[in-house]
Design brief:
Length: 131
C-alpha cells in the first residue's frame, strides 16, 4: 500500500535531492501537480510531467543538477498538516530564510507563493516552506 500525501511527496523530493538523483516519481493528485508547478515557476525543479488517470496517475519530477553553487533545492518542509492546519492572513504571510526561500500558500485563487499572495492581497493555508 502506497501512501500519497503531500508530506510523502516532499519527503521523496528531499531524499532524491540529497541522493543526487535526477528524477523522482510520486503518485499524482491535483494538489501535488500544483505544488510541482509552483516549484518549477520558482526555479527549484527543472520540469514535471503528469501521466496516467485516476489511481494509476503518476507525477514525474526532474530535479535540477547541482552546479558550482550547489543544488537549486536545499530544503523542503511541510507546515500545515492534517493534525494542525496553519493559516496566514494577507498581512501575516511568513518569510522563509529572510526572503531567500518561498512559502507555498493555498489560497482561494489556487496555490501560489507567499509573495504572489501578498501582491494579490490574499491569505490562506501555509502548505510548505521551500529554500
Amino acid at each position: 500500500m502506497t501512501s500519497d500525501t503531500i508530506a510523502d511527496m516532499l519527503t521523496r523530493i528531499r531524499n532524491a535531492n540529497t541522493a543526487h538523483h535526477r528524477v523522482v516519481e510520486v503518485p499524482a493528485s491535483r494538489m501535488k501537480v500544483e505544488i510541482a508547478r509552483v516549484l518549477q515557476e520558482e526555479g527549484f525543479i527543472e520540469a514535471f510531467a503528469h501521466s496516467g488517470e485516476g489511481a494509476d496517475a503518476t507525477l514525474t519530477i526532474t530535479l535540477k543538477p547541482g552546479g558550482a553553487k550547489g543544488r537549486a533545492l536545499s530544503g523542503l518542509r511541510r507546515i500545515s498538516r492534517p493534525g494542525l492546519r496553519v493559516y496566514a492572513r494577507k498581512s501575516e504571510i511568513p518569510r522563509v530564510l529572510g526572503g531567500l526561500g518561498i512559502a507555498i500558500i493555498s489560497t482561494s485563487h489556487g496555490l501560489m507563493t507567499g509573495r504572489a499572495a501578498q501582491r494579490a492581497g490574499l491569505g490562506g493555508e501555509v502548505v510548505a516552506y521551500v529554500w
